[in-house]
Amino acid sequence: MGDNRQPIGVIGTGYVGLVTAAGFAHLGSDVFCIDIDADKVARLKAGEIPIYEPGLEEMVQANRERLHFSTQIADALEHARLLFVAVGTPPTYSGDADLSAVRAVVDAIPASDRHALVMKSTVPAGTGASIKRVLAESGKQSLSYVSCPEFLKEGSAVKDFLDPDRVVIGDEGDWAGDAVVELYAPLDAPLVRTDIASAEMVKLASNAFLATKISFINEIANVCEETGSDVIEVARGMGLDDRIGPKFLQAGIGFGGSCFPKDVNALKQLAGNSGYHFQLLNAVIEVNELQKRRVIGKLQKHLGSLVGRTVCLLGLAFKPNTDDMREASSLVLSARLQADGAKVRVYDPIAEEEARQLIRGVHFATDALDAVQGADAVVLVTEWDEFAQLDWRQVADLMAGTLVLDGRNALDADAVRAAGLTYEGIGRGALTAIA
Ligand SMILES: NC(=O)c1ccc[n+]([C@@H]2O[C@H](COP(=O)([O-])OP(=O)(O)OC[C@H]3O[C@@H](n4cnc5c(N)ncnc54)[C@H](O)[C@@H]3O)[C@@H](O)[C@H]2O)c1
Q1: Number of structural domains the chain divides into
Q2: What pLDDT is recorded for position 258?
Q3: Which of 80, 213, 242, 299 is within CB 3.0–4.6 Å of 7 for a Cys-Cys bond?
Q4: 220, part of any domain
């Protein structure tokens, strides 16, 4: 890639920061990565990648000489004009976004007409305006500000960086917006250049819409169970309509992760704080919570009381190909099952280390076949590929009971049934009727 690419700074080296840094290094920029977590910086300097993300390690290794890691923001300020901010914005108890890490970065940047903050972190619409106000109040009005929300998906983040559906840049038409446009130019992605508040809202509205689509199909699935319809067939028929599209129409046991729950809540709170009651989002959130808990009802339908029963959870991460456990459905399920007196055995191919910090009282199995041993029921929670490849006859031999609850409609129902097991999916009323 080009030799004349401008150096950049990336503040926060989590999922978004590290992928952004590696991606821009791949495109030819020197990237100065800053994190307050000294341990993380030491690991990164040693060539260790602290998160699991397909292709990231290879990309970091291939561009090592262009990637520089430090705990000192001064190292980025010295070399780079554009400072991408990718620190966490987790939810507070009220559901609002916690902007304390963003504020800490704003406070740490000195007055300068050479530098710009480029906000990658997801922030409520209006944050850019309030940051600019804070900068002006502290004599730092010469700093430029650009909103550049991130749309990458964990599990395919590297691919998403290299081939984004769109790049959204909100700015005030100064040098910094132009510089960000130039930086992204080699990716040849559709560009939406707009004002700061609109760019901020694109991100929140996109995630809220996707979450709405999931809760919608989950409710359709629940109705399918009552009407003897199969939600997979229904979604196939719906998705062929160009206006609807096939994506995000997979029924399951609810969405999780670090973004959807937080961003939907943040938009709901943002609207509420501005005096608007966003009714639809209340329903999206409630449907999602109930969807996780419906699993318990289904288990009880087949097993009766769960006291003393052994339930196996296959998969713990909030989705496949990541070790991210934030807001994973497995957190609610493992807690609810134990509260109902069940013994819980769990297995995840990648997320065990993260899960051990968050899930107590369960047995962590060494592999899927170890996990199903003695189980009265097996619940597919995360659709890792390896679970679809399981030998169901072997599983049937190892289980104490026969119930397989496919929480992601990802298993071959015929293969499960052929092994003498009872298959139950989500919204597969037609299948249940045939059985
Ligand atoms: N994870 C995703 O899939 C995704 C996708 C799009 C947008 N986002 C948004 O991007 C932002 C970052 O998300 P993430 O998942 O990468 O978070 P993360 O928790 O993985 O990483 C955040 C990093 O910022 C560091 N940090 C915190 N305060 C700092 C400071 N003052 N100075 C320097 N470093 C600091 C933390 O130590 C951590 O390494 C969030 O706003 C999130 O909503 C995330």
Answers
A1: 2
A2: 87
A3: 80
A4: no
179 in the same domain as 299: no
Residues 426 and 290 occupy one common structural domain: yes
CATH of the domain at 292: 3.40.50.720
Strands 82-85 and 116-119: parallel
Residues 6+ apart with CB under 8 A from 411: 380, 387, 388, 404, 423, 425
From 33, 224, 259, 312, active-site residue: 259
> Residue 297: inside a domain, yes or no?
yes
| Position in ligand 1 atom list of the atom nearest CA 104 | 31
What is the CB < 6 Å shell around ligand 1? 11-17, 34-37, 40, 86-89, 101, 104-105, 120-122, 150, 152, 154, 258-259
State the residue for tokens 């987790």: 90
User: Which helix H or strand E contains 27, and what residues bound it?
Assistant: none
Tell me the C-alpha distance between 402 and 309, whole Å. 12
Domain that holds residue 128: 8-194
Last residue of a domain, one of 172, 194, 216: 194
Query: Furthest-apart CA pair in the chain: how many Å?
Result: 72
Q: What is the pLDDT of residues 24-55, one digit of tens each?
A: 999 999 999 999 999 999 999 999 999 999 99
163 and 304 co-located in one domain:
no
Q: Supply angle C-alpha 160, 163, 167, rounded to 5.
A: 85
The arithmetic mean of pLDDT across residues 127-148, rounded, is 97
Q: Does the pLDDT value for residue 435 go beyond 50?
A: no
The answer, yes or no, to whether residue 432 has pLDDT greater than 70, is no
Beta 116-119 vs 343-347: how paired, if at all? unpaired
Encoding tokens for residue 332?
């609610």
Task: Evaluate whether 32 touches 70 at the Cβ level (below 8 Å).
Answer: yes
Residue 213 lies in a domain: no
259 is catalytic: yes
Give the Å distance between the CA of 423 and the centre of ligand 1. 39
Based on its alpha-carbon atoms, the radius of gyration of the chain, rounded to whole angstroms, reads 23
Residue 403, SS3 per DSSP: strand
The answer to whether 154 and 171 are in contact (CB under 8 A) is no
Helix/strand/coil for 64: helix
Contact by Cβ (8 Å): 125, 99: no
Mean pLDDT of all residues in 68-79: 98
DSSP secondary structure, 232-273, as one string = HHHHHHHHTSTTT-STT----S---SSSHHHHHHHHHHHHHH
Length of the chain: 435
Same domain, 27 and 91: yes
In a domain, 211, yes or no: no
pLDDT in tens, 87-115: 999 989 888 899 999 999 999 999 999 99
